[in-house]
């Protein structure tokens, strides 16, 4: 998973060998606090696996998690073929302010 644009909005994308594993997964911006974890923003990934999450405050610690997805392909006369896209998460990061 790649993370870029660490200012007010966190942009990035998830890459996979299978194109069907990139689109339609749930990406969440998660704030790391002393009391635990808090979800700030969530969004479905685009067709190319891209996401843009808002609400990050500079100086706080965050990470991005992308959820698991199961794709079932029905085949006539055979068992359904299931593809499992694993859950991934980024390293922790601290956004900086947009102004220098």
- Spans of 5+ residues with little confidence (pLDDT < 50)? none
Q: Give the strand order of the largest sheet, numbering strands 1, 2, ... along the chain.
A: 4-3-6-9
Overall mean pLDDT stands at 85
CATH level-3 fold name: Immunoglobulin-like
Second rung of CATH, namely the architecture: Sandwich
What's the SSE pattern? EEEEEEEEE
Shape: elongated
Specify the CATH class: Mainly Beta
Q: How many structurally independent domains?
A: 1
- Distance between the first and last residues' Cα: 27 Å
Q: In this structure, how is the largest beta sheet organized? A: 4 strands, antiparallel
Strand proportion: over 45%
**Fraction in helix:** under 10%
Radius of gyration from the alpha-carbon trace, in angstroms: 16 Å
Q: How many DSSP helices?
A: 0
Explain the overall architecture.
- This protein is mainly beta and 100 residues long.
- 0% of the residues lie in helices and 47% in strands.
- The protein is built from no helices and nine strands.
- Strands 4-3-6-9 form a four-stranded antiparallel beta sheet, with no helix packed on it.
- Strand 1 (2-4) and strand 2 (9-13) form a beta hairpin.
């Amino acid at each position: 998973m790649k993370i870029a644009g660490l200012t007010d909005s966190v942009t990035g994308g998830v890459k996979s060998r299978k194109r069907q594993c990139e689109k339609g997964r749930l990406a969440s911006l998660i704030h790391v606090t002393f009391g635990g974890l808090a979800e700030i923003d969530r969004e479905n990934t685009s067709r190319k696996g891209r996401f843009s999450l808002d609400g990050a405050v500079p100086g706080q610690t965050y990470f991005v998690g992308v959820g698991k997805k199961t794709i079932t392909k029905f085949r006539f006369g055979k068992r359904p073929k299931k593809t499992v896209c694993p859950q991934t998460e980024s390293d922790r990061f601290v956004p900086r302010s947009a102004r220098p």
